[in-house]
Amino acid sequence: MTSNGWLQIGVFFTLVLLAAKPMGLYLAQVYEGRRTWLDPVMGPIERLLYRMTGVDAAAEMRWTEYGAAMLIFSLATLLLTYAVERLQHAIPLWNPQHMAAIEPYLAWNTAASFTTNTNWQSYVPEQTMSYLTQMFGLATHNFWSAAVGMALAIAFIRGIARRESKTLGNFWVDLTRGTLWVLAPMCLVYALMLVSQGVIQNLKPYETATLVETQHVTATGTDGKSVSTTITTQTIGQGPVASQEAIKMLGTNGGGFFNANSSHPFENPTPLTNLLEMVSIFLIPAGLCVTLGVMVGSPKHGWAIFAAMSVLWFAGVLTCYWAEAQPNPLLHGVEQHAISTGAAQSSGGNMEGKEVRFGIANSALFATVTTDASCGAVNAMHDSFMPLGGMVPLINIMMGEIVFGGVGAGMYGMLIFVVATVFIAGLMVGRTPEYLGKKIEAFDVQMSMLYLLIFPLIILGFAAVTVLLPNLGLSSVSNHGPHGLSQILYAYTSATGNNGSAFAGINANTHWYNSTLAIAMLAGRFLMIVPMLAVAGNLATKKIAPPSLGTFPVTTPMFTLLLTSVIVIVGALTFFPALSLGPILEHLLLRAGTSF
Amino acid sequence: MSDLVFIGASVFFFSVAIWYLNGCHQSMKGGRDDA
């Protein structure tokens, strides 16, 4: 670890801290329907959309109506994306590479992936998707799924803030305002900033470049014979990258325009874009802490949650950076020899799978941030991290991605943990648990537990079945032993957590993985949202009691400590047996000289 | 044929989600008299 690395990590967090308050105040303004400087531009568009769709913007919805509207909208957009993918070869628009129709398993997996804000990609985008599919099928979903997440978080916050109310707002209004007032204008500015740094934005066919140095490649053919090929040209992918990159990061979507994602120079060309991309992942989720404080009338509560998130973020980045700054023990002798003979420059740490432009500190930070949130964009290959370094992204997702988290999803996930925390605090002091003056009763705890238990059930269930299937499951992993288990575990954790980053090394484009990962993504999103909305709807109906001596304060360092402890205990201990068979065992075996 | 399977699977999943939502609602009503 270097002081330069820590300085860059410090700059990143300072920017997040500085941006949280203005972002959060703006979000509160937007969702409370107060006047903003964008009203003259967006107001007429909003009213036109409501007239066209017949939405009554003044109508309030109960939690069941809010949830049903969200489910119907998600189903409709999923089917639309599926249709675009299946028909892309027949649509004579923006398909200069003449991409074929996407096969049904992959098309369904991708449609589920982008509907759920996961952006898991079982395919190589630049070899699979037409520009139309990238823009209309996928980038628009990045807006919709992010706006849905934000709307749900706001609905939960209203549930806490309102007293004796049967409604949580209007889903269609929240969806529209989140898109028009927050995501669209911010992405417009952000995309232009990316273009200024070298991110491409065009609809051209791919370029063909002649290599300066001819490459000779020898490979084994299907008949088992050695085939030698001379390569003189390289195809360079093009496309509308900047417009997709902006929402990919800001909406914590994470699906890259290129397979290499944010390690590709057309997606992430400079250290400045790398910093911007990381900050933009946390921007809205960090702002939502302030929004929570404003809307429930307790700004200190919002900052207490921000503090808990910050502690967990720091623990993650410290562990990941430390692990990656260590040299691989099996290569130690080789590196020492290289240094002593002056034959090569040694980084002093694990540089496998990392982009040299970003180095160890920025790769460890990016990996931590992208999995703290449900983003899933990567600027390094997590599969190549040291076992404990790769365990950090895995644990971050396993904790439910509530460390700032996905746009909206992180906040409502964290609020479920808050309900569990005040319940445990109530048990400890022997009083009826209260949260900001609202009594937490049996139904709230039942629904919160349902939310918390569905998540590991899906991950561990699918992973356990997959490791028992040699032909369908194990045949796709590229490493055996604990590393192979980590690859499978990571895939189902990433899908269920709607993260979308891959541990790489696993071929997920098979019928088994495409269909089971799609089910995991859908269940991990929608079967968790329903109990969360039920808690919100139930909280909204309650009276707000004034604080008494027995009220557990949710604005103090004690609350932050208790909340952090509950998250670690619930998140980490649930998955500890699986982690001990994967990355922890791999770490111990690596120290003993065994690799996989 | 595969398309129909996946479209059907999508509709089935979201139908289950609506049924599940209704189940949570019934559970909520069961716990209170005024809901």
Main traits of this protein?
heterodimer; A: 596 residues; mainly alpha; two-stranded antiparallel ribbon; 19 helices; B: 35 residues; 0% strand
Task: Describe the secondary-structure layout.
The complex is a heterodimer of chains A (596) and B (35).
Chain A: H1 3-31, H2 39-53, H3 63-87, H4 104-115, H5 125-128, H6 131-161, H7 171-197, E1 207-220, E2 226-236, H8 241-250, H9 271-295, H10 299-325, H11 332-341, H12 359-372, H13 387-398, H14 409-429, E3 434-435, E4 438-439, H15 442-467, H16 481-496, H17 511-540, H18 557-581, H19 583-591
Antiparallel strand pairs in A: 1-2, 3-4
Chain B: H1 2-30
Helix content of chain A: 55-70%
Strand content of chain A: under 5%
Helical/strand content category of chain B: mainly alpha
For the sheet with most strands of chain A, the description reads:
2 strands, antiparallel
Cα-to-Cα separation, first versus last residue of chain B: 45 Å
- Give Rg of chain A in angstroms: 24 Å
Oligomeric description of these chains? heterodimer
The helix content of chain B, as a percent range, equals over 70%
Number of helices of chain A: 19
Radius of gyration of chain B: 15 Å
Low-confidence stretches of chain B: none
Shape of chain B: rod-shaped
Summarize the helix and strand pattern of chain A as letters.
Answer: HHHHHHHEEHHHHHHHEEHHHHH
Strand residue percentage of chain B: under 5%
Mean pLDDT of chain A: 92
Order of helices and strands of chain B: H
Biggest sheet character of chain B:
none
